[in-house]
Amino acid sequence: MAPRPYWKGYLKLSFVTCPVALMPAISDSERVKFRTINRKTGRPVQSQYVDAVTGDAVEDEDEVKGYPRGEDDHVLLEEDELDTIALESTRTIDIERFVAADSIGWIWYEKPHYLFPSEAVGQEAFAVILAAMRDTGRVGIARLVMGGRERPVMLQPRGNGIVLWTLHFGDEVREADDYFEDADTTKPKSELMTLIKKLIVARTADWDPAMLRDPVQENIQQLIARRKKGRKVPATAEKKAPAPTSNVINIADALRKSIAAEKKA
């Protein structure tokens, strides 16, 4: 059975509207999650807001958002005040603009979601918007409230549906030139290029999601399985990174050794 949609609402382009649903394209439900437990009682512990000075617990009705303007001095903002400035994008994805599909760099992408029609009555309108974006090489730009926070989003045609990417805000992305401008742009020696290309070819394989396996998660699952059976986990010696033998590195020699190791493997 398919999981319940994360979000349901409407996709809107001018006067064209259709009901849609949204599901995260990635999931961490299979990852091991821990609770913090009281060792003495074996029961889970709970977190609670406390006053930073008195240490007294703060009740839910006494919690309010504040913007610092000085030490121990804040501008307090009530929820109804914040609601007045929120945009009307809670249940509608209103496509405001279209841009060339290749004009938004990967660094602006945040999280992917699958967007699809939620009712048969909206299939035709959804299909028209999808086909038009694909044929014109455009992606849609809109806004959407997710998890209580409004995010800019990009609608990207993909197969029979749309991938909705949440995007970073304009002031969240740092300029790459601030960090790369001092990089050495000297052209590498041809000998080094030949060797490094051989190493790249030796390590090239067809893409497989298994390349992204998480060995730590696998070890945790094995650890939990052992503890369920009442077995103790043997202690391991502390792992230390090998100390470098010299600060001077001969890149050509290092590449030759690397290529030789790849051939043996």
Task: Offer a concise description of the structure.
The chain has 265 residues and is of the alpha+beta class. It has 6 helices and 10 strands; from the N terminus they run ββββαβββαβββαααα. Helix 4 packs parallel to helix 6.
Describe the structure.
The protein has 265 residues and is an alpha+beta fold. Among the domains are: 7-27 and 86-167, Beta Barrel (Ku70, Chain: A, Domain 2); 186-204 and 250-265, no CATH class. It has 6 helices and 10 strands. It has an 8-stranded mixed β-sheet. Strands 3-4 form a two-stranded antiparallel sheet. Helix 4 packs parallel to helix 6 (251-264). The longest helix is centred in the middle third of the chain and has 14 residues, at 123-136.
State the distance separating the first and last CA atoms: 44 Å
CATH class membership of the domain at 7-27 and 86-167: Mainly Beta
Task: Give the averaged pLDDT, no decimals.
Answer: 85
Question: Which structural class do you get from the secondary structure elements?
Answer: alpha+beta
- Globular, elongated, flat, extended or rod-shaped: what is the shape? extended
- Enter the CATH topology name of the domain at 7-27 and 86-167: Ku70, Chain: A, Domain 2
CATH architecture of the domain at 7-27 and 86-167: Beta Barrel
Sequence of secondary-structure elements:
EEEEHEEEHEEEHHHH
The major beta sheet can be summarized as: 8 strands, mixed
Using only C-alpha atoms, the radius of gyration works out to 27 Å
Uncertain segments are none
In total, the number of strands is 10
* Strand order in the largest sheet: 5-1-2-7-10-9-8-6
Tell me roughly what share of residues is in helical segments.
Answer: 10-25%
Number of helical segments? 6
Strand content: 25-35%
